[in-house]
């Protein structure tokens, strides 16, 4: 105690010692040499702190904001954004040994004399494997598969007509297929959601060409949002189902090994109304049918498909650094179930954000998956638990 006081009394020496390895030029060292008074030196002491602040803390803070700004704003989201109105979740009943009449009754619906026709319409980018699983899963109950493809990604990058080159692999749907292409607009610097909306309008036209009519069922979903077969069978047989119904899907990431949550809701089924029904991928009603299928995001076979998707995707601004596209990094994150864009979970409460931080836990359940996946487990191994290594090209 006394020693410190002594040193403080001596002013110059104290400052000298404390500062000389931190901030040589701007501090007391010089001032004592120039014979400045103790008072001046004390002021200089404040300058030292200001120096440290200006040259160390401020840049660190700015760098931190730059690197983690998105994370900080996502973390604080519960403060600036109210959660959306909750859905009205409709309980979903199914067992293969229960008759359709009883299943409809359990949902409070009647049964029809004959099933509705069903149209499955998707915008296709490059998801060849998931498209196969989707179409095999839904095949028994679909009247027409409608697929539209552009030679532009949503972010305005040119892409080949991928489906056209894989069409031979889809012979099994050929008699029920309406395939259309649309030329990209290639507007530089435009919001990707504009190109997406443009392509969805083209899909409405293609549905008319495919012959959709009133009260046919129309599935609106991305390729990777796959309704389960029995869900579509239920909806085509039951009377009085809601005009528009969202489907709650299990959310998987990279493969069926990483179950993120059970809350995917964007996919929807519509009883088509001419002149009224428009293809959309946002919230259109409060009705949500529980446990109606799978949403497998970034479920690709090869690393190059991951890279393409990261660049092509509507949120390509999330690729903040070029090293995010490094194949080794991508492979490592896939095996860990970690986020490719180094983002925080998009949730509305602190509890959910914190609960979901860090990698997605591994899941070892492979029951209740699309039947085509299990029947062809060799071909689709990368989608099953314990097989995170991807083809490198
Ligand atoms: C379920 O249905 C199958 C035929 O569809 C029948 O063989 C089987 O006995 C049924 N099981 C039960 C528990 O009713
Ligand atoms: C995209 O397709 C349209 C029509 O099919 C064609 O006119 C255009 O040249 C294509 N653009 C590119 C970049 O491939
Ligand atoms: C999702 O639902 C299944 C039951 O269908 C349950 O076992 C699982 O724990 C749920 N997962 C999450 C992440 O909520």
What does this structure look like?
This protein is α/β, with parallel strands linked by helices. The chain has 2 domains: 2-75, no CATH class; 88-300, Spore Coat Polysaccharide Biosynthesis Protein SpsA, Chain A (Alpha-Beta Complex). It is 37% helix and 15% strand. The protein is built from 14 helices and 12 strands. It has helices at 2-10, 12-19, 28-33, 38-75, 77-80, 100-106, 128-138, 162-166, 192-209, 229-237, 303-312, 327-336, 350-356, 371-375, and strands at 88-90, 118-124, 144-150, 177-182, 217-220, 225-227, 244-247, 249-253, 259-264, 268-271, 287-289, 293-297. The chain has an 8-stranded mixed beta sheet, with helices on both faces. A 4-stranded mixed beta sheet has the order 6-12-8-9. Strand 2 (118-124), helix 7 and strand 3 form a beta-alpha-beta unit. Helix 1 (2-10) crosses helix 2. The chain is globular, with a radius of gyration of 29 Å. The chain starts with a helix and ends in an 18-residue tail after the last helix. Mean pLDDT is 88; it is low at 1-28. One 2-acetamido-2-deoxy-beta-D-glucopyranose (NAG) binds at residues 151, 158, 181, 183-184. One 2-acetamido-2-deoxy-beta-D-glucopyranose binds next to strand 9. Pfam families: Glyco_transf_17. This is Beta-1,4-mannosyl-glycoprotein 4-beta-N-acetylglucosaminyltransferase.
Short description:
The protein has 393 residues and is α/β, with parallel strands linked by helices.
Strand content: 5-15%
CATH topology of the largest domain: Spore Coat Polysaccharide Biosynthesis Protein SpsA, Chain A
CATH architecture of the largest domain: Alpha-Beta Complex
- The share of residues in helices is 25-40%
Poorly predicted regions are 1-28
Order of helices and strands: HHHHHEHEHEHEHEEHEEEEEEHHHH
Side-by-side strand order of the widest sheet: 1-11-7-10-5-2-3-4
GO cellular component, one term: membrane
Protein name: Beta-1,4-mannosyl-glycoprotein 4-beta-N-acetylglucosaminyltransferase
GO molecular function: beta-1,4-mannosylglycoprotein 4-beta-N-acetylglucosaminyltransferase activity
Keywords: Membrane, Transmembrane, Transmembrane helix
């Amino acid at each position: 105690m006394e020693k410190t006081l002594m040193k403080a009394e001596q002013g110059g020496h104290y400052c000298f010692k404390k500062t000389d390895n931190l901030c040589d030029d701007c501090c007391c060292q010089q001032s004592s040499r120039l014979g400045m008074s103790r008072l001046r030196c004390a002021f200089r002491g404040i300058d030292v702190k200001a120096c440290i602040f200006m040259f160390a803390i401020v840049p660190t803070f700015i760098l931190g904001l730059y690197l983690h700004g998105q994370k900080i704003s996502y973390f604080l989201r519960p403060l600036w954004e109210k959660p959306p109105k909750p859905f009205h979740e409709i309980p979903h009943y199914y067992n293969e040994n229960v008759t359709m009449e009883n299943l409809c009754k359990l949902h409070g619906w009647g049964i029809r004399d004959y099933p509705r026709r069903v149209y499955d319409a998707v915008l296709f980018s490059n998801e060849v494997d998931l498209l196969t699983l989707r179409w095999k899963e839904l095949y028994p109950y679909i009247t027409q598969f409608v697929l539209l493809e552009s030679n532009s990604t949503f972010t305005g990058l040119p892409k080949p007509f991928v489906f056209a080159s894989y069409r031979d692999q889809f012979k099994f749907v050929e008699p029920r297929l309406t395939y259309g292409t649309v030329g990209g607009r290639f507007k530089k610097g435009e919001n990707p959601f504009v190109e997406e909306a443009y392509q969805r309008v083209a899909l409405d036209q293609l549905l008319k060409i495919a012959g959709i009519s009133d009260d046919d069922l129309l599935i609106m979903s991305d390729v990777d949002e796959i309704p389960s077969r029995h869900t579509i069978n239920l909806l085509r047989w039951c009377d009085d189902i809601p005009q528009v119904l969202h489907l709650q899907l299990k959310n998987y990431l990279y493969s069926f090994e990483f179950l993120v949550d059970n809350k995917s809701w964007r996919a929807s089924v519509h009883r088509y109304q001419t002149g009224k029904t428009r293809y959309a991928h946002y919230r259109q009603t409060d009705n949500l049918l529980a446990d109606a299928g799978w949403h497998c995001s970034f479920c690709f076979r090869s690393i190059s498909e991951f890279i393409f998707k990261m660049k092509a995707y509507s949120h390509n601004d999330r690729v903040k650094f070029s090293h995010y596209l490094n194949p080794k990094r991508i492979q490592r994150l896939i095996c860990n179930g970690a986020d490719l864009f180094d983002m925080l979970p998009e949730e509305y409460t602190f509890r959910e954000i914190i609960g979901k931080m860090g990698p997605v836990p591994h899941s070892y359940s492979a029951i209740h998956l699309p039947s085509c996946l299990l029947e062809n487990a060799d071909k689709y191994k990368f989608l099953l638990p314990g097989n995170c290594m991807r083809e490198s090209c």
